[in-house]
Amino acid sequence: MAQNSETGNTDAANESNENPNFYSLSNALRVNFSFTYQSANFGVQTRFYSPAISLQMYRGKRHLHEIGILSPSSLSTFQIADVGRGITGSLNLKYQYNYMLGTGTQKFRPYFGAGVYPSFFYARNDPTTNNNFPTRSSGAVFGFGAVSGLQLNLKSNFFLDVSIPLRFASIQFIQGTVLNPALPIENQIVSFTRTNFFLPEVFIIEIGGGLRF
Q: For residue 181, what are the contacts with CB-CB under 8 A and spacing of at least 6?
């Protein structure tokens, strides 16, 4: 029974003993950088994000599940003289399923898949001037997309990875509050939901590497 519950790792171990050039199919820790090209209302923006970390888990020889923390996830405080101070935070996650083509003995393994990319944020602003009111905003964004990529196996435990994710839909849930004592409580809070489909104005390339264990 134990062998059946660990089919992917058992098959990998057997094939590894038979083939000295085998590239192991086990869990992996992946670190990647992303380069974003985005057309905006005021021109074209390009961004280079800090590393994102994800955990990859094989189920069988072709089914790869990936969960991770995307960049830029952050928590920061700020203070502007004679204006105010505040705090902002965001947490960007992802779950992605990849179907791997080829076999574990191949040096190059293309893949394609799909994923969901939830993001959560919070912002607080406390002005120090009398003509402004404190504000609070929070929300969640769920993005949906497809991905294609290529994995380059260097050694049995090391690999490089290049992928192009395409986000084609997103759902946003946002709530904002203006703490104006002159307004009734119900008028201080604004909530809305926004749905976007097909976002071709955003193009992302992810380049990274990983270590299997």
A: none
